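so my prof wants the structure for this chain in the tokens format not the other one, which i didnt know existed until like an hour ago. anyway here's the sequence
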Amino acid sequence: MLEKSWSASHSSSSFRETRAFARVEHQTCTNSLDRNTPRQKEYGMSDFTRTRETKDLRGGGKGKGKGKGASGGGGGGRGGRGSAAELGGGEKFTYESGSRTKKSDGADDSLMVAMKDGFAAGAAEDTVSTMPKKKETGLRYSALAAIAEDPGLASEYASEGKLTSTMVSSVARKSAKNLRSAVKAMVQAQEVSLAFLLDTTGSMSGHMAAVKDQIGSIVKQIQASSCTIKGVAFVGYKDWCDGIDHFETLDFSTDIRKFSSFVGRIRADGGGDYPEDVLGGLNRAVSTLSWPRDGGTKIVFHIGDAPPHGNPKYHNSGSDDYPRGHPSDPDLQSIFTRMKSLQIMYYFGRVNDSCDKMLKVFEPYYGSSIEAFDTSNTGDITASVTAAVSTSVAVTSALVGSSSSAPERKYVMNKVVPIWSRISEESGTQCSFGLPESIKEIQDFSKLETTTKSMKCKIAPNPFDKGANRLAYYGQLLRPNDKVEDVVLKEFITLVPDASLDRMRYMVDMEVQTVASKLAFEFSARLSRTTKAPNIRIKFLMAKIVRIASATDDSVRFMMMEQKYRTEGPMVKYTNNWNFVLADPHKQDQIDLATAFSHFTFQHTEEYCMVCDIQGIDAVNSQGKPMVLLTDPAIHCPSVTRFGKTNLQEKGIEAFFGTHVCNKYCRALGLKAP
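here's what i got, hopefully its the right format
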């Protein structure tokens, strides 16, 4: 399916042709929202008037490139003409696009062209403050955030103490190289190898039958999400009382009938005492199956209703023939070390609470939280497995596509909410962006208004969860009058010794979430006035940056802070930043909203950018209306370093439209395929 989508994308030249040349239309348009309507007030929107500029986002325009030094020959890539003086103080920079000429004494304008047009321009040599300012150019923190992810450039920046044209040139070159690696990683990550690990004793007969019967629908849903199944495998285990060889193993195969037939022949019997040989089954799954060596997403989905031998390590039952563990039990550290080396993702299908203690023992060896899906109802197995696949594809693509060689912070996972009375208060500042007032502000790297104020908070000592790039911590925001707000704080896993560079990474992430929030308001408001107004609304959580100064030394800690979800529920990944779209008939309305929103952002920003990687949880607002609370989006934009390393630029936009089929919400908004 992936090959078909690329073929379809490249067979149509209209996508590129419609954006081939720069044009500037000096006309003012007001969007269709009525002034000061109740809907505007509901979404916190101001009147939205903008100057419409449709810029070439592809390159290959008709302009001529002039220039010398670091910026030579930039114009031909965007149908404009660029010239920049050699690095040095007060010389003018001129950039022409269509009929418009922009001149400035400032370094930011030359950097602007470098970032927007994908070539290196000169930059003035001034330093960057480590403290938040009222206004700060998004251009600078985009460049510096990219430098933060590269230890070599970060070291050069620390030595120079300033941002130079050489650094900007390196950022542009490395961003292009990283894009190629990221695209390759996305394609590779959507090649899925899925192994089922099941307890096959008598009490599990219903789940065995469900896996046999549902494997076809599981594979179809995975393929419908633009993933490719490289193979499905099965490992069944019983207990030592059932003989030394109490395993049933089917290696990876693309023959679904063969898989179903194999599982159907296994008898659900055996097992004597309370535990089963879980460790032996897990070891078989990671050691004897032919896991691909050429990458891809690899998953073990384990379903069981009994823990391993070992009391009280894994359980507290008195019915255990081997309370100290069986003498032939494989070493737990060895199992998970091999799992990590093969980059296998491990998920658990929870039938009852018998294995909860086991999962807590496993987690330190696994290195992060183990997601447990409720499969007590066998009808939920398909949805659970496809959700595990969507999460794994996202994590695998981020791990494989990561170009950072920076060291990582050490951590120990703990999913338990701390006793807050035992956690000390910390003082610092919180910084937030105001929503952009126009599309032009987004397009032109304009400075978003920044609000900074003092704050006090409490932060859990250990993270409760781990994503591909960040750790998540429980926290409390301490407000005046003894009011407390539960929050989640996120911290990058990679370490950056320079506090000013570290801060820039969070500034870029906050910009992404702020721009996505604005566009989500626009989308919901416009859609609410159509005949297809949905019952469900989408909304992004507003993010803030927290700066905590150490009480014992000069170090500074930055974190991203969001309001904690008021409702408990699973995080659902509807799309990624390639062409993955969740295939789940039970969530079709949310899926349609997610894909229509991405399409809307591309058209609404005049083909400048697209919000994607849509993920969140189901919730209700203060009026009791259903909504999807979203977080951690990605934004594709042709600018080389804009919106961070999840920006796959035009490749990502093409991948989305290569498989996107317009739905009722797209049609209601009058969205057109590019």
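also thought this was worth mentioning. Residues 1-135 have pLDDT under 50 and may be disordered.
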